[in-house]
Amino acid sequence: MSDLLNKWIDEAKNIIIFTGAGISTESGIPDFRSPSGLWSRMKPIMFQDFISSEKSRVESWSRKFDSENDISFAKPNEGHIAIAKLINFGNASYVITQNIDNLHQDSGISEDKIIELHGNSSYASCLDCKFRYELDEIKSEFISQPVGSKKSPICKECGGIIKSATISFGQPMPEKEMKRAESATLDCDLFLAIGSSLQVYPAASFPIIARKNGAKLVIINREPTELDKIANMVINEEIGSTLKALV
């Protein structure tokens, strides 16, 4: 099977790589939906509540800076490194990712080659003027406030609401990134879906689009997925070691 996939990678003119939480669990980041994930311990805060309620915003930032939810310790694993090689050697053109952990950037892939469908948790931005804020500045100001009287950060440029640069439940998907992902998918002849349960839509629609458009679809995931039946190849193995052996 690996020999055939190597052949497909060598022959492909345009490879797209699609990644989900499964690749980052090998870096120590729990899947949000797993038994040990964040959502098993607390209910997600809806985007509408974040916008309308100062209490929800304070709760959101308190969770963000809770040491139990900190993922800044994580480093790229051999799966991330293998994908970076495929991108940087010119075998693959883009990484479309559901992940928010910045590990593809940390592995050495340039920003313009990464399409983030669910945003990025490593910085924040104003919802109105889009001004970027680094988390260290926000964290320092937020945690210095007395418990019980904390206030959420406000944009110093326009007075708007600052939010972690991730897509929350109820928040519209990023239109620009969705269009980039669709265009990249339609241009590919080999689509590698890696570490995703392929259950979350509209992100999970891209492997379907690729397959319907004539591209080969390969799914690499530790567990079976709902889209295995349409794939040209399914590999249910550890992701890092599998990718390392391919590159």
Would you kindly provide a written description of the structure presented here, covering whatever features stand out?
The chain is an alpha/beta fold and 247 residues long. It folds into two domains: 1-28 and 75-118 and 173-247, Rossmann fold, CATH 3.40.50.1220; 30-70 and 122-166, 2-Layer Sandwich (SIR2/SIRT2 'Small Domain'). It is 36% helix and 17% strand. The chain has helices spanning 2-11, 21-24, 38-41, 47-52, 54-64, 78-88, 103-106, 135-143, 175-187, 205-212, 239-246, and strands at residues 15-19, 92-97, 114-116, 119-126, 132-134, 162-166, 190-194, 216-220, 233-235. It starts with a helix and ends with a helix.
Features:
single chain; 247 residues; alpha/beta; Rossmann fold; SIR2/SIRT2 'Small Domain'; six-stranded parallel beta sheet; three-stranded antiparallel beta sheet; elongated
Number of alpha- plus pi-helical segments: 11
Order of helices and strands: HEHHHHHEHEEEHEHEHEEH
Strand content: 15-25%
- What is the gyration radius calculated from CA atoms? 19 Å
Tell me which oligomeric state these chains represent.
single chain
Overall helicity: 25-40%
Largest sheet: 6 strands, parallel
Separation of the first and last Cα atoms: 14 Å
Outline type: elongated
CATH class of the largest domain: Alpha Beta
CATH superfamily assignment of the largest domain?
Answer: TPP-binding domain
Strand order of the largest sheet: 3-2-1-7-8-9
The tally of structural domains comes to 2
Task: Write the CATH architecture name of the largest domain.
Answer: 3-Layer(aba) Sandwich
What structural category do the secondary elements indicate? alpha/beta
